[in-house]
Amino acid sequence: MEELPICKIKSCKEQAEGMYIVGGPQITDERDCCLYLMDGGTEPALVDAGLCYSIRAILAPR
Questions:
Q1: Is residue 38 part of a domain?
Q2: Each residue's pLDDT tens digit in the chain (62 positions)?
């Protein structure tokens, strides 16, 4: 896994070039769906495909 300066989550896993899974049932909370961090080159984007009960934990400074 290539470390991104924007991805400080230990369980952050690169799924495809520039796309990292940062949340989901085995990562944050069983109720969360998939949460992705996209590296767009100039700005990162967080894509939430679920309810994201753990958003505060995910966005907290590390």
A1: yes
A2: 444 555 666 667 788 888 888 888 887 777 777 888 888 888 888 887 666 667 777 777 65
Which residue intervals of the chain are DSSP H helices? 55-59
The answer as to whether 8 is a domain residue is: no
Residue 3 lies in a domain: no
Q: Measured between alpha carbons, how far is 32 from 55 in angstroms, rounded to an integer?
A: 9
Task: List the structure tokens of 54.
Answer: 């753990």
Half-sphere exposure of 25 (CA within 13 A, CB side): 3
Q: Beta-strand (E) ranges in the chain? A: 13-16, 19-23, 35-39, 44-48
DSSP for residue 46: E
Structurally, how many domains does the chain consist of?
Answer: 1
